[in-house]
Amino acid sequence: MLAFILCMTITMQMLVTWILIVYVLSIAVVDLTTHRIPNWLSGMAGILALLFQTLLFGFSGLLDVLLGCLVGFSMFFSFYVWRAFGAGDVKAMAVIGMFLGPKGALLVSIATLIAGGVIGLFYLWRFSGSVQKTWHRFLGIVQSPFVVINKAPTVPVMFNVSNLASKPQKQNKFPYGVSIAVGTLLTIWYMGAMPYLY
Q: In the chain, what are the domain boundaries?
């Protein structure tokens, strides 16, 4: 009986890991094609995370879901306030936190920001056409939160951030869902969840 329960627990953990992987790959593909992460996709994933984590771990699982959601949401909310990320990105990170708990949400956030920096530099280079323009736009993006909250009015801005925010070109828009997917997969591997896939 104990062996059966253990087998079922491992099987459910495998299922939860696969659901998370399918979710992050889905948001990457959808964000690449439509430049948005739909609420229904994150909503369904969030419900599944809440259901499975509670079934697997009871009250401690529910607590992990809530704390993971809070950490994931809070890590990206400030970027949303600065208009660096979309609301869909914030919701996606909150849902991923529901799957991985607070520690996992923190690791995913760090990994995603690193992946986003690398992919973002490639996008800037791809659409600016030169290294100098890429560097100037990168500095502008780094400064943009301070410009938006008026904390550094004397810092010279390398390009017009307000124009970039008010006149986005859809074909040049950076699909952050890809970075979220990369950061999540790296975190799953780092946390040792990958063995459940085999």
A: 2-197
